[in-house]
Design a protein that fits this description.
With 284 residues, the protein is mainly beta. The chain has three domains: 86 residues, SH3 type barrels; 54 residues, SH3 Domains (SH3 type barrels, Roll), CATH 2.30.30.40; 116 residues, endopeptidase domain like (from Nostoc punctiforme) (endopeptidase fold (from Nostoc punctiforme)). The protein is 11% helix and 36% strand. The protein is built from four helices and 25 strands. The protein has a six-stranded antiparallel sheet. A five-stranded antiparallel sheet has the order 8-7-6-3-9, with no helix packed on it. It is globular.
Length: 284
């Protein structure tokens, strides 16, 4: 999978701006005045799910999964400021959510799984992990893969580089998943989180928010009929076509990921918010 190009000082979008008011990444030296500059320390998410915060203790911007990379330039008062390796999104994480890189080798390709304290389904302790989580496999005992965090059913894992071939198929794994603003997991997902999870699982780079995702692929002409995998964009919302008439999206209208006729969704969104489709994009 190709990572999103990282911030090299050209971005003014705070979500991609690798600096706060105390420190900036060393790549910004000479481009941005800052009290201090620092090189990034590569770390990794060590909890099943971590909220990426706009400010320490503040609101959730996005979420990062177990095994996701996070590059840190400041650690202060229990929080680390850095950027997500997979999409360049910047923000704060609790220090307790981070560990040294484990050299992940596999990813969770099942809709969801568990980390077990022992390599058996009856193990006394387990914790849920989401589709897309990344793990280093140390070995295998019976049907369980051993990782630094516990044991996972081996059938739920794929080696990095072994991706799905169809983003729509991936999105379908999230049908019924609760809607969660900024969510990026099977326990809760929003519209852009669903698209990002679906594309990353197919080895395709994808930014985090819908306005950024609008740069993916190419614009469709008026003469081109929508087809499976095309993206529809409203201001602040994105959906993916299942075929030429149905679309799948995570929506606050139903507080879940649903499939519905595109014409009905377009009409409902227009009636309730006054928003029309602003872009139709084809990924390939």
């Amino acid at each position: 999978m190709t990572d999103i190009p990282q911030n090299t000082g050209q971005h003014t979008d705070r979500r991609l701006h690798f600096a706060n008011h105390r420190v900036a990444h060393i790549s910004l030296q000479g481009q941005l005045k800052s009290p201090a500059y620092a090189d990034a320390t590569p770390l990794e998410i060590t909890v099943p799910l971590a909220d990426l915060l706009r400010v320490p203790g503040g609101s959730r911007e996005r979420q990062l999964l177990l095994g996701d990379g996070f590059e840190v330039i400041e650690r202060r008062e229990g929080f680390s400021f850095g950027r997500s390796t997979k999409d360049g999104y910047c923000g704060y994480l609790p220090d307790t959510a981070l560990c040294k890189p484990t050299k992940v080798s596999h990813w969770v390709a099942a809709p969801a799984s568990h980390l077990y304290s022992e390599p058996r389904a009856e193990a006394p302790k387990s914790v849920g992990i989401s589709f897309g989580s990344r793990l280093r496999v140390l070995g295998q005992t019976d049907n369980f893969a051993e990782t630094p965090h516990g044991f996972v059913p081996a059938s739920h894992l794929q080696m990095l580089g072994r991706w799905y071939g169809d983003p729509v198929e991936v999105a379908g794994l999230f049908l019924g998943t609760p809607y969660l603003w900024g969510g990026n997991s099977h326990s809760g997902v929003d519209c852009s989180g669903l698209i990002q999870l679906s594309l990353l699982a197919c080895g395709l780079a994808c930014p985090a928010d819908s306005d950024m995702q609008q740069a993916l692929g190419r614009d469709l002409t008026e003469a081109e009929t929508l087809q499976r995998g095309d993206l529809l964009f409203w201001k602040g919302h994105v959906a993916m076509m299942v075929d030429d008439t149905l679309m799948i999206h995570a929506t606050g209208a139903f507080m879940a990921t649903v499939i519905e006729p595109a014409t009905e969704a377009i009409a409902r969104i227009r009636d309730t918010s006054g928003k029309d489709v602003i872009a139709r994009r084809r990924l390939q």
